[in-house]
Amino acid sequence: MTAAARVLRLLVERGETLAVAESLTGGLVAAELTSVPGASQAFRGSVTAYATALKAKILDVDGDLLAERGAVDPEVARQMAAGVRRALDADWGISTTGVAGPEPQDGQPVGTVHIAVAGPLGVEKVSALRLNGSRTEIREESVRSALGLLADLLLGEHRENARAQDTEQIGGN
Q1: DSSP labels for the chain?
Q2: Which residues, in sequence order, are bridge partners of residue 112?
Q3: Contact assessment for residue 53 and residue 91, using Cβ atoms and an 8 Å cutoff
Q4: Which residues, 6 or more positions from 112, have their beta carbon under 8 angstroms from its beta carbon?
Q5: What pTM was estimated for this model as a whole?
Q6: Distance between CA atoms of 100 and 142, rounded to whole angstroms?
Q7: Three-state secondary structure string covering 83-125
Q8: What CATH code is carried by the domain that includes residue 19?
Q9: Rounded CA gap, 89 and 3, in Å?
Q10: Are 102 and 76 in contact (CB under 8 A)?
Q11: How many domains in the chain?
Q12: pLDDT recorded at residue 159
């Protein structure tokens, strides 16, 4: 099962939805998700905010932050995930921002990538990656990493909820 299929299955089981904000991946996360039959049961949509100004205008990323640090920043990734979650009215938001190459950007070397997840009840996770390879390889690994981060969070919550239910059942006997 692909990472996209796993994420979508978990979301459908939970009755939750997902939205995606992409920069360096340019729509690849959304393409991976929509390649799974039945994706529309959980996938709401995506925003490809390749231009830095769109991150502020559409995803509500702080303009001062973008001016100070540039688009390749963990806090920018966090705000993109939270912003797409709000903008597309989804339970979960994931984002990708970084430098796929061939040249450095905003003082960051090629292969610098930040991915983030924002979810219900204030769940947030940001991951910084240092990837090697071609532009294509960096973008593809960014997609895998973003979907993997969300899957880990969903599975972690699933395990926590299952343990809580087991405890309730044991305590109730």
Answers
A1: --HHHHHHHHHHHHT--EEEEESTTTTHHHHHHHTSTTGGGTEEEEEE--SHHHHHHTT---HHHHHHH-SSSHHHHHHHHHHHHHHTT-SEEEEEEE--SSS-BTTB-TTEEEEEEE-GGG-EEEEEEE--S-HHHHHHHHHHHHHHHHHHHHHHHHHHHHHHHHHHHHHH-
A2: 130
A3: no
A4: 72, 98, 99, 128, 129, 130
A5: 0.91
A6: 9
A7: HHHHHCCCCEEEEEEECCCCCCECCECCCEEEEEEECHHHCEE
A8: 3.90.950.20
A9: 23
A10: no
A11: 1
A12: 52
Residue with tokens 């979650």, as numbered in its chain: 85
Mean pLDDT of the chain: 92
Structure tokens at 85: 């979650």
Q: Which residue has the tokens 């071609």?
A: 134
The span from the CA of 64 to the CA of 75, in Å, is: 12
8 Å CB contact between 116 and 59: no
| Tokens encoding 12 | 């459908």
- 21: tokens are 């904000």
- In sequence order, the β-bridge partners of residue 114 are 97, 128
Q: How many CA atoms lie within 13 A of 44 on its CB side?
A: 20
Structural domain containing residue 74 = 3-172
* Token representation of residue 142: 């960014």
pLDDT tens-digit map of 136-173? 999 999 999 999 999 999 998 655 544 433 334 444 44
